[in-house]
Design the sequence.
């Protein structure tokens, strides 16, 4: 039986997802590689956190608060292959710190899939050194 989504449950779920997203950015902004990338790209942190929380509430809880694709906003960013591992590490830590274990595992499964998909789209060329990049 599915739990009924009451206003109280929605508020509780939303609070949990917001804590997850805020913790992720706390970790990421302190990271030597991710921090500068995020700081350069995000001008309105409150609005950004809301958008990302809506994405994760939709992805993890099916709340239908996010429409569109998460890929498009990342196309113009200077993301390199090494950023993905750091992003996954930050997300994993944030999930373990703020989400119930089952939900943290679902978040990581979704994040690993996103990382694989984003890499394929953003870094389509294999370089001579074996790394992947935007140009051959």
Sequence:
């Amino acid at each position: 039986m599915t739990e009924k989504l009451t206003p109280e449950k929605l508020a509780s779920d939303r609070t949990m997802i917001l804590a997850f997203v805020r913790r992720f950015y706390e970790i990421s902004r302190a990271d030597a590689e991710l921090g500068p990338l995020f700081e350069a790209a995000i001008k309105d942190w409150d609005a950004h956190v809301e958008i990302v929380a809506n994405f994760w509430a939709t992805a993890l809880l099916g709340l239908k608060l996010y429409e569109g694709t998460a890929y498009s906003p990342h196309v113009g960013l200077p993301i390199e292959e090494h950023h993905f591992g750091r992003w996954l590490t930050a997300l994993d830590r944030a999930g373990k710190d703020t989400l119930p274990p089952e939900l943290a595992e679902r978040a990581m499964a979704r994040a690993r899939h996103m990382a694989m998909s984003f890499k394929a789209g953003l870094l389509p060329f294999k370089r001579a050194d074996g790394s992947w990049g935007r140009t051959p």
